Amino acid sequence: MRTTVDLPEALLRQAKQHAAKAGVTLAALIEDALMEKLHRRSVSKTDAAFVFPVYRGPAGAKTGVDLRSNREVLDLLDADE
Predict the structure, then answer these.
(1) Distance of alpha carbon 29 from alpha carbon 16, whole angstroms
(2) pTM for this predicted structure
(3) pLDDT, tens only, 21-60
(4) Read out DSSP for 1-59?
(5) From CA 3, how far away is CA 49, in angstroms rounded?
(6) Handedness of CA 37, 38, 41, 43 (dihedral sign)
(7) What is residue 74's three-state secondary structure?
(8) CA-based Rg of the chain, rounded to a whole angstrom?
(9) 65 and 72 in contact (C-beta within 8 Å)?
(10) Tens digits of residue pLDDT in 2-11
């Protein structure tokens, strides 16, 4: 599909140089850049929706607890309640 886009002259010159160095057309460069920008925006919005909980307290693991053992970790969490 054909469309017209107004770009600052310096930006267009840089884009043409970049496309030539990369061995792609200007249209392909613009298409790739636009797709990447849109993808990044959609990913960042979904990532931003999740907030990791932060717990305040003594730093580090409790002595004697094997963090590879779900049972020990769950027992420790139950004991703190």
Answers:
(1) 9
(2) 0.50
(3) 999 999 999 999 999 998 887 666 656 666 777 666 666 6
(4) --------HHHHHHHHHHHHHHT--HHHHHHHHHHHHHHHHHHHHHHHT-------SSS
(5) 34
(6) negative
(7) helix
(8) 26
(9) yes
(10) 889 999 999 9
